[in-house]
Amino acid sequence: MTLVTYSLQAGIALALMYLFYRVFLERLTFYRANRFYMLGYTLLALALPFLNTGGLWPKRVERLSATITRLGVETRHAAPILPSGELPAATEPIDWISYVLLAGMVVLSIRLLVQIFSLLRLWDEASLAGRDGRIRLFRLPYPLAPFSFGPNIFISPQTQDSPDLQRVIEHEEIHIRQAHTLDILLAQLLLVFQWWNPFVWLLNQSMRQNLEFLADQGVLDRGADRKEYQYLLLSVSGQGVPSISNPLNFSPLKNRILMMNKPRSGKVQAMRFLFALPLLVVLLVAASRHRPTPAGDGLYHFHGFAMDAGNLQPIAGVLITEKTSGGSATTDQNGYFRIDIPLGQVKDFLLINAIAKKTGFRDQTIQSTIRLDSTGAPATKGVLTDFGMAAEGPETHSFVTDQVVDNEPALLQKDPDAMRLAFNSEVAGQKEMTKIRQAFDSSPHIFYVIDGKSYVISEHGGFASVDGTVKTVFVNGKTPMTGEELNKRYTKFQVKSEGAYDAVVAKEKFGIDENVLVVNLKDEN
After folding, report:
1. What is the rounded CA–CA span in Å between residue 213 and residue 259?
2. pLDDT by residue (tens digit) across 263-282?
3. How far apart are CA 200 and CA 192, in angstroms?
């Protein structure tokens, strides 16, 4: 997940949460419930992009479909398809939006640090005037409106000599005992990460205003005269105060006075909080929808079957190590293996470079280029990578091939019938290819068209193929020619490796919107 994606998803959730508060809850006098609503839904919105709530909803149980599709581009080879330098390089565009987001976060972080530093400087200049348990009263050397931060109350000399001192202390004591400083700090941190979101600035204002409603109501509940207390608020309006504190004169005072004079909301109106439940469901459903399904959960499932290239029987105990990710797996009794490769920040293409080892067999190299779609998930779902290992000895034939199954790859491990079907499909394909390979062995040609598919082969029997008749073959990755021209100029004994690209990759690499084949020739020296 990118910074932009996270910021957008969290920002949308915060906007919905704020709009709900503004429409249904803001004018109610359930200040404590409003506080917990804003705190709870804010934390939920920040966590939402990381949640996968798909497990909360009923799932459709599926079995693997009996349909097996051979990939349009496949490669079977005894050597790597192409050197790593021949694999398509993904260009990394500059992510200007992320840079802008980070720049804004830096600016707001500096702003917050300056505010904290200013508060600490005031604290350093103040003198302790009294203590009640953990609550401490500090006197400032110059006039500021009364405020609190943490367990500390700050007052000016004028306030200390005022007959309203007791009401001021009661107001700030309520902020302290209810830990309102935590709300203030959360709101400030939220501004750092969501500085671009106008709803978060409005939410910050509403959160702080609701804290003042709570403190005002607490003072009135202790027996303060309503009008005298409101005159006290008016008397300190306009005085300076640190922005990350709980100030007595937090504006707009008009709203505070209106809410103090408003009759208490009845129990029937508390039913409005039930409307927050549909909002919760919407957010949780969104979390289950924007998160990838198990087939695209931020991982590429590199899996398939290992078999003996000679008799097409599964091989158990083959150790497959994927070098790029460092992941490894050992084949089971069915020859099946699975390695989950984190996609992370991979863009456009995932380059797989694996090696398979088993005593009594030649090491098998497996290289593949997996194209990713715009969401960062594999463009082709359900790919099985199968390979046949050559036994030690004069026989050098081996192969690597891909097949596509209709449903999620994970179902293979749960469904023996599906496992057997996928393996038998590969065996049938290999038997068919044995007949085709006989045609290769009887001729020195490199390029063939057999049963509607185009092939290029190398000296040791490795080959690559694509569906249809290929018009262009690239020699050494740069010289285009037709298959007929290739057969006239070169023989398979001059080919060290071969490969195939589908139209999408070929367009990016060669500028040709069609399937192409590639051969790399041995050095003439």
Report:
1. 7
2. 999 989 988 888 888 888 77
3. 10
